[in-house]
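tool=predict chain=A
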Amino acid sequence: MFEKDILLIDDSLTFCESIQEILEEKEWSVDFITDPVAGLKVVHEKEYKVILLDLKMPNISGLDFLKKLLEDKLINKTYVIVLTGEITIENAVDSLRLGAKDFIQKHAVVEYTDMFFERINKGFQWQHSRLENEKLSELRKQAVEESRLIVKSVGHDMSGSYYASLMLRLQMLIKQIEKADIKVKQALDNEEEIDLNKIKDYLEKSLEKGKSIEKLLGFFKELGQKLKYLGLAIDSENAHKKDVDINELIKDALHLFNDSAAGRNLSLFVSENLSDKPLIISASQEDMLRVFVNLFENAAKAMDFQGNLTVTTEKVDHKVIINVSDTGCGIPADYLDKIWRPDYTKWEGQQGTGLGLMICKKVVENHGGEISVRSQEKVGTTFMIKLDLI
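tool=predict ok
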């Protein structure tokens, strides 16, 4: 991100070379520029942790330099220490007002070198804090946006089409049962023979409606579980981590998957190519199991429960790389950046909460890892997870 540690802008070549020498003895990387106009261009194109800026220079003074940074909204990410041979209260006040963070006389650099180093170190610390705050701010924005999408998505499902479908089918079920009841009562009141075929027809339709209601209730149950898991994935500080062999963990996940309805499908072939040696990571076993089972279930859906599911692990440097591949329908290129969103699901004709992959991403990231995807339509998809080994 930063080009180098320090950029010195001063019209004196001799001064620049001297300062560069003493700073590089501290093992800091240093650039210097004697033309302030060129220096201004460089600052617009590159970032430095600390800028040392002379006040009195030809073409552009140090104050004009600061004004330009302020106008172009660069001053808030730039730590400028003003260096000058002649200090005045007016210069100091103007420099700080325009966004400089510190003010040092040039003779103090010679007489109080350690203090000069301390002031530069303060700039390094300021940049570290700035980047951390920017990262936290970005994470907060992301969390707010994800929360908004989750509420919108879940609210739509709970109060929209799924809720309407559930209530309509409940009403139809009640009507079917009422019809059967009425027919029986009429036959009994009129001392007529009960038409068992009609009653059977009504009851069969009732049973069909009941099964569809059961399916919808299953969706609401899954949605509730996914929301619970999402909360656990976000609350990474309370995750109980321990040393686990990722190979054994994947075998456990495959066992769970094979016991499921999807895994028992005879047209689905599962193969594993796991490392011969243990690959130990620090992980919440429950959370990581959920990640792999979810990826296996997604693969089965993508293949319409017939095809090849392959899982591999390998050690690369100090990381383990896990690939989960399928020979399914693939993901269109313009959807690849959307699959992690909480409001996205693309299972045609199948129910989906849109939260599964978001949970996978959160869990992997909370374990200090990365998850990515590559896919080709009508060929298949591979999810790749990278985790640190211990």
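The CA atoms of residues 38 and 237 lie 48 Å apart. Residues 160-234 form one domain.
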